[in-house]
From TrEMBL:
<keyword id="KW-0255">Endonuclease</keyword>
<dbReference type="InterPro" id="IPR019080">
    <property type="entry name" value="YqaJ_viral_recombinase"/>
</dbReference>
<dbReference type="InterPro" id="IPR011335">
    <property type="entry name" value="Restrct_endonuc-II-like"/>
</dbReference>
<protein>
    <submittedName>
        <fullName>Endonuclease</fullName>
    </submittedName>
</protein>
<keyword id="KW-0540">Nuclease</keyword>
<dbReference type="Pfam" id="PF09588">
    <property type="entry name" value="YqaJ"/>
</dbReference>
<keyword id="KW-0175">Coiled coil</keyword>
<dbReference type="InterPro" id="IPR017482">
    <property type="entry name" value="Lambda-type_endonuclease"/>
</dbReference>
<keyword id="KW-0378">Hydrolase</keyword>
<dbReference type="InterPro" id="IPR051703">
    <property type="entry name" value="NF-kappa-B_Signaling_Reg"/>
</dbReference>
<dbReference type="GO" id="GO:0004519">
    <property type="term" value="F:endonuclease activity"/>
</dbReference>
<feature type="domain" description="YqaJ viral recombinase">
    <location>
        <begin position="31"/>
        <end position="168"/>
    </location>
</feature>
<feature type="coiled-coil region">
    <location>
        <begin position="252"/>
        <end position="279"/>
    </location>
</feature>
<dbReference type="InterPro" id="IPR011604">
    <property type="entry name" value="PDDEXK-like_dom_sf"/>
</dbReference>
């Protein structure tokens, strides 16, 4: 591998796909958000594929059609995003130290010539005279196992999207794990995956252009979005289509029965494993630790502790935001 060639210390201006730079890297934030509404970016693709635990396809659709969505109130996620951006120069430096390859700033916002695809590359590199994408991530130590062998699927989708936009043949992902360990993976262009993403993107963008809301899916992200969108009801009753509602209620009842059966099977298996362990903490099979049943400290009840310290404590100032609860009244359909 080498770090010299046509890159010349700055991003290349030609892309085999025919992509063009439509917004400079230092453009105002308002311009950047405006351009993002006109196409699908890498993180958008991961979300519409159902791979983002925090952002649903429905939320992406709202953003593309220009409909406001209540902001998620999560200081922890906000801090993680802020620190991830702040750490990018450090992660890029580690990439160069580990690989000997350049990692220069991305060129700005790229647009594919024939598809509603855009890309904002974290960094650009060059290997054997050919340009490539460098995607930088910062993750907690809990994510280590997800990165050991290869990047998580959502990151692979994001990177393949960038390769589709640029027309380039490879990319590197660089993950700083727990602030202590840097993992680098090289990904080659995957034409089959890119074709699948193109089909998904075409269907989704059709919903954007027609302003037809995509189907509601079963993700937690969609549930959280609906909670935010409808946190403050303004009317008591809506008359809905009986056929649709009754079918959904039946589906819900069947799912609850299947969950209950699965929970019984799970508990039976766990109880039998506990019986085998008996008074032992570890169970071995074929010379290896198969499972353990070890003591652990009990959980602390902070509510009990607080009331014991101050029996007159008023809990109301500590109450969280109000939520809406879904309760079914037609159980026998």
């Amino acid at each position: 591998m080498g770090n010299t060639g046509p890159l010349g210390g700055s991003p290349p201006l030609a892309y085999p796909s025919g992509a063009q730079i439509v917004l400079a890297a230092n453009a105002p934030s308002a311009d950047w958000h405006a351009v993002r509404r006109t196409g699908l970016g890498g993180s958008d693709m991961a979300a519409i594929c159902g791979l983002n635990p925090y952002t649903s396809p429905l939320e992406i659709w709202f953003s593309k059609v220009g409909r406001p969505v209540p902001r998620r109130n999560d200081p922890v996620l906000d801090e993680a995003a802020l620190m991830g951006h702040a750490l990018e120069p450090l992660i890029a430096t580690r990439f160069t130290a580990l690989t000997g390859l350049l990692a220069v700033d991305g060129p700005g916002t790229l647009r594919h010539p024939s598809r509603p695809w855009i890309a904002n590359l974290d960094r650009v590199t060059e290997d054997d005279g050919l340009p490539g994408v460098v995607e930088l991530k910062s993750r907690s130590s809990y994510a280590l196992k997800d990165w050991l062998d290869e990047p998580p699927v959502d990151v692979q989708v994001q990177v393949q999207h960038y390769l589709a936009v640029t027309g380039w043949d490879y990319a590197y992902t660089v993950a700083l794990i727990g602030g202590q360990r840097t993992l680098v993976h090289r990904l080659e262009r995957d034409e089959e995956l890119i074709a699948d993403l193109a089909a998904i993107a075409e269907e989704f963008w059709g919903w954007v252009e027609s302003r037809q809301q995509p189907p509601v899916d079963g993700s937690h992200a969609t549930g959280q979005l609906l909670d935010r969108l409808h946190a403050h009801p303004t009317r008591d009753v809506v008359v809905a289509d009986a056929t649709e509602v009754e079918w959904l209620l039946q589906q819900r009842a069947v799912a609850k029965q299947e969950i209950a059966a699965a929970e019984i099977a799970l508990l039976e298996a766990e109880n039998r494993l506990k019986a085998i362990a008996g008074d032992a903490t570890d169970v071995h099979t074929r010379g290896e630790l198969a499972y353990s049943w070890r003591p652990q400290p009990g959980q602390i009840s902070w509510k009990t502790a607080a009331l014991a310290a101050d029996p007159g404590l008023d809990p109301e100032p500590y109450r969280g935001e109000p939520t809406r609860v879904l309760r079914v009244h037609l159980e026998n359909l």
